[in-house]
Design a protein that fits this description.
Elements: H1 19-22, H2 25-47, H3 51-62, E1 66-67, H4 68-75, H5 79-91, E2 95-100, E3 103-111, H6 113-133, H7 139-156
Antiparallel strand pairs: 1-3, 2-3
Length: about 160
């Protein structure tokens, strides 16, 4: 017969992950990433659009005409998946695609006025979710967090390097 080990009353046991994980930046970054992604997906779902749509429209707002390949490369999207997302945006009247007159193999993508309106709505959604999620941080802390995350992202992927 086995002797029972020390018993810890359930009501005194701390809930949550072990202290080692709570001091791991990798673990914490993963948890924060999962949580904010879930909140963003829920918020975008209400709008009828997705985080992919938001990224594409944001890119087209900064770079008014892009090829499908440039969009995929800039955002790190699989080119075959991107085609489906662009098809949906085009059906909704948010983007237009036309053949490049200089290279008929390429499609040029531009945002429509309806796309600009949708992007304005999506930016409001993003702002609301970010304000709620990052509420515990003051403006300086948010700026510092953004800077640190940008530095890490840029170190590991040149697409995320801040233009100086």
């Amino acid at each position: 017969m086995n002797a029972p080990g020390p018993q810890i009353p359930l009501e005194t046991r701390r809930l949550g992950p072990p202290k080692e994980l709570l001091t791991s930046p990798t673990f914490l970054a993963k948890r924060v990433g999962f949580a904010i992604k879930e909140r963003m997906m829920e918020a975008f779902e209400v709008s009828g659009l997705s985080m992919y749509d938001h990224s594409i429209l944001t890119l087209l707002d900064e770079e008014p005409t892009e090829t499908q390949a440039q969009i995929a490369d800039a955002l790190g999207y699989d080119r075959s998946h991107l085609v489906g997302v662009l098809d949906d945006l085009e059906e909704r009247g948010l983007i237009e695609r036309r053949r490049d007159t200089q290279d008929r193999r390429r499609h040029l993508v531009t945002m429509t006025p309806a796309g600009h309106k949708a992007l304005t709505r999506l930016r409001t959604v993003v702002s609301q979710v970010e304000d709620e999620y990052f509420e515990p941080l003051n403006a300086t802390e948010r700026k510092t967090l953004t800077s640190l995350l940008g530095r890490l992202a840029g170190h590991h992927d040149p697409r995320y390097r801040s233009p100086s």
